[in-house]
Amino acid sequence: MSDQKLALKPQVYLDGRPAEYFQQFHVWARSHGADAMQDIVRLIVVPWCMFFYRARADGAPQVPVSGPAIIAPNHFSALDHFFVAMYLRRRVRFMAKSQLFRGPLGPILTHAGAFPVRRGHHDEQAMTTALSILRAGGVVVLYPEGGRSRTGEIAAHARPGVGRLALESGAPVVPVAIQGSERARNWKRLQFPQVTVHYGAPRCYELSPGDRVPIHAREQAIADDVLDVVRQLWGRPARDEPGGAEARRLRPSLGRFSAFLNFPIGRARWGR
After folding, report:
1. Is the domain defined by 37-260 classed in CATH 3.40.1130.10?
2. Residue ranges per domain, the chain?
3. Which stretches of the chain score pLDDT less than 70?
4. What pLDDT, in 10s, does the model give residues 29-44?
5. Three-state secondary structure along the chain?
6. pLDDT tens string 177-213
């Protein structure tokens, strides 16, 4: 575990730039979908992930093929964005830390589907953008833990944001566990662990009219429930697939190379 801590740079938890600076990215994200930039990035990164990390997935067909959806994975590495998206047949949108939106990288991230969340602040702009994407039928990736784990273990408690989005949008939440990415940052040490992505079944949440639980408590309960499912998926055997060993033997290439079939080039900008 100490090797993992040494491999991580110190986090910067406060972005001192004013909220007005990020308005340009939110305006774009609310009126445009991810474009060909996401396809270009995927064409570059997916072969890397497939070759070096032997990335594979199970349960990806459970992700809704149309309509709004919230993808909720654990978060250990910056590569998690790519691991979680490479086997989906839809363009996805990401809530990314605001420190990344500097210089030319800001517009690139925006066209690739990301929008900023202002670190160290209660950022209503980010939540508004996420809701607008979901209401337009898009897919948003949101990490229940709020940021990367610094310990190599999934956090004990979630941030309430995923619960709020689920209640306000009505979109199903797909818990996702990414195994192996806690060591994916150690490529400089020539460590390339195998990464497996487990997609869980979509979960729908709502606040009934007679529910007396305060809304913020309900949001937190939903977020903790999602993270609990992620934790259960994370504990599964890395090669646990429907059909057992015989199915894996008969489909050795499908799980690995089907990522090249998943580029949604030319589809509607909201990924419907």
Report:
1. yes
2. 37-260
3. 1-12, 150, 185-190, 210, 212, 237-272
4. 999 999 999 999 888 8
5. CHHHHHHCCCCCCCCCCCHHHHHHHHHHHHHCCCCHHHHHHHHHHHHHHHHHCCCEEECHHHCCCCCCEEEEECCCCCCHHHHHHCCCCCCCEEEEEHHHCCCCHHHHHHHHCEEEECCCCCCHHHHHHHHHHHHCCCEEECCCCCCCCCCCCCCCCCCCHHHHHHHHHCCCEEEEEEECHHHHHHHHHCCCCCCEEEECCCECCCCCCCCCCCHHHHHHHHHHHHHHHHHHHHCCCCCCCCCHHHHHHHCCCHHHHHHHHCCCCCCCCCCC
6. 999 887 776 666 667 888 999 999 999 998 777 676 7
